[in-house]
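User: Can you write out an input/output pair for a complex, sequences first and structure second?

Assistant: Here is one pair. Inputs:
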Amino acid sequence: MGGYARFVWPCFGFACTVLAWNLWSARRFHAAARQRAGRTLAMSDEN
Amino acid sequence: MWTWFYRLASPPHVYRVAATLIPWFLTAAAFAIGYGAIAGLVFAPPDYQQGDAFRIIYVHAPSGWISMFAYSTMAVAGAIGLIWRIKMGHAVAAAVAPIGASFTVLALVTGSLWGRPMWGTYWAWDPRLTSELILLFLFAGVMSLRPAFEDSNRGDRAAALLSIVGVVNVPIIHYSVLWWNSLHQGATVAKLGKPSMPPSMLLPLLSMMLGFMCFFGAVLCMRLRGEVLNRERQATWVREAIKS
Amino acid sequence: MNVGRPIGAETSVGARRAMMLIMHRELCLSFRRPEQLLQPLVFFLIVTTLFPLGLSVQLSLLRDMAPGVLWVAALLSSLLSLDSLFKNDADDGTLEQLALSGQSLATIVIAKTLAHWLVSGAALVLVSPVVAIGLNIPVSAFATMLLGLALGTLTLSWLGAIGAGLTVGLRRGNVLLSLIVLPLAMPLLIFGAGATDRAISGTSAAGALYFLASLCVFTSTLAPFAAAAALRIALD
């Protein structure tokens, strides 16, 4: 990388991290929402 | 003709449409980012001034663009929720905020790492960098304001108003390099007419932009589905929807 | 509840007279508690003292950081007083009465904000020469400093009105208010301190002052409506 490797690779690495975090966080958020919705439905079924 | 548009106000419809869009967005993102990153890192020739350090542009420029696009989306979605009282507008605004903030951080960090070899410093209080940092603070403000209200409707509307007030920052970021003497380089791609980059450098960049946009769309849809469920927990359509 | 101007309402009081009445009320209330007026000013004096004490710099260096110190202190002490802009009236129900009075909320916001600026921002501007001497700002820069602070504190009052309107119902709205207002106030800080800085070094501060003035005009025209919308959200 012409001497700039220690700047270029961390940039791409951090970009991968951010993209991965976005995917993981969105999935987790949706999964938690599903769980909460399931609980709400279960509670209303009991009543 | 406009029914597809009106249906977007319906939560179950949004939930379904988002689900179908996600795999398309992700696939497109994978191909575009894959090509863009490989071509940008390996096949694009080194810049005559910046050498190989210019390759950071392939993550820095798209992330900066997405950060501004995300904030604008948040403001527009909030406005739709505020003015026309369409709840899905607030759902989109809430979903976009953390995504936009993460890309703002990415833009700031990659920019900082690029600044060190090019300008000799990790940070400068130059108009574009400062206004991008302000963007991050604006995201933080909106994300803090929404949950502060006990009534979530009120929270949504207050957050929408704040994001609209802050949207004035977005053109400032974009035009800062034109309006002030800035360390940051001027427009390379968005100039009307010939961009100042040769195709071997430009095509991977455009591909990365497209890839990041598709990725943004995918993640937005994923988060939006979660937001819709959280807001519509009591509705009858949810029962069938979460079984799948 | 329909807030703002009820449809078909006829007001016997015109907008200008209503503004005068509200401002008069605000000023009366403020002067009834003089200690509440003095606290932000004292804070301003103390904060500007902290910097030279903490950094123990020579006078020449102090002059270099003076504009920044002055403006940051002005910003922070303005934030302190902003919380009370709508909160007291919201707590005892006066705000709702004002909203139902038939005057537009924007009129009410303008009156309250201007009154607030008179007792906080304008007071700050009057006290600033004292602080400036402490920070070794030369007298030749005073005119620019005073004009800049006057424009800046007014802009800040408008921005603060938006923030105060958004956070009026919240329990711990103080910190959130700062979090909302400070990013919006950053351009103000940049140009305000820049203007004073240029005046100190002898170059023309006209550009920065024009920019400050344009920021002030921009916020003066739009902020009342944004703050009114924020209050409507809180009152609905």
